[in-house]
Amino acid sequence: MKPIYIDYLNALDIEALALTDAEILAAIETSLAAQGNGQTVIEPRVHLEPDESFHGHFNVLRGYVAPLNLAGVKIVGDFVDNYKLNYPSEFGVLNLFDPRTGAPKAILDATVITDMRTGAITALGAKHLARKNSKVLGHIGARGTAYWNVRLLDHLYDFDEIRVHSRRPESRDAFAKKLSDDLGKPITITDNWQACVEGADIVVEASRLPEPQPMLKTEWIKPGAFVVPYGTMSAVELSLTDIMDKLVVDDWGQCKGGKFGSLRAHVEAGKLSEQTLHAELGQIVAGHRTGRENDGETILFWHRGLSLSDIALGYAMLEKAKANNIGQRLRFA
């Protein structure tokens, strides 16, 4: 048997790659198109909760992207008390494999991959589903994925106003400062949910609630808005889906089951079902279903996170790393 090597990229390697916003978005859009064209396999995520007192759980995501000739498994922990240790709330590892033999191909730090690809899905959802003249963003939450939500959305829309809110003042202040420094524009810090989201053109809810609580009121959403709720625990009212002209998800198989997710109660109540679902985002990106058709439509996009996105972004990182001689090769067998 000839030697088998694994490409390894740690967090420092990935930082050195300095992927541009355009590179991130292009990688994820490619995977969405593959999904929409039926060129992928995605298994619903599964969870491991070691102990309720640890205030966290592991997500295990699995998928296959035929155009990239890669299968992948990502394991990511989500622990809400990590800030007390000055850790990110999420740590992750992405494993990539040859789909024909099962031979391991690569191991990547997936902490920033998770953040980047989540932000890219939010932004690409807006690209196809938000009004083209959207100028006000309201963002709830300052978790790891929040930065890339705002950064990549602003890359596409160049907002006139960006409002942010988070439960802890120190968290939202630090979040706003980093955004302001990196985007080169002022950020509006709000001390309550209503001031953050009411009347915004694009609303992203990425809160970190310990249990479901309807903090985001349906009446605050203006007609024609694009709304993205994706907190682990629901922060929206059951009536939110009632005002929507289109309901879009990233993958219905993931969204219809499991115990977590911002619209879990809506699925259980039948408000979001195969009958009420307009499309998966990949179907829209691939041109098989319509996105936004007029400025009057109020549209909701719920994404749980796709293993396909992790695989696609990991592939893009590996290709850039090879071109720039970044990373390590580990002997496996």
TrEMBL record:
It comes from Phyllobacterium myrsinacearum. It is an enzyme of class 4 (lyase). It comes from the Bacteria. The lineage of its organism: Bacteria, Pseudomonadati, Pseudomonadota, Alphaproteobacteria, Hyphomicrobiales. Belongs to the ornithine cyclodeaminase/mu-crystallin family. GO terms for molecular function: ornithine cyclodeaminase activity. This is Ornithine cyclodeaminase. Its EC number is 4.3.1.12. Keywords: Lyase. Pfam families: OCD_Mu_crystall. One of its GO terms (cellular component) is cytoplasm.
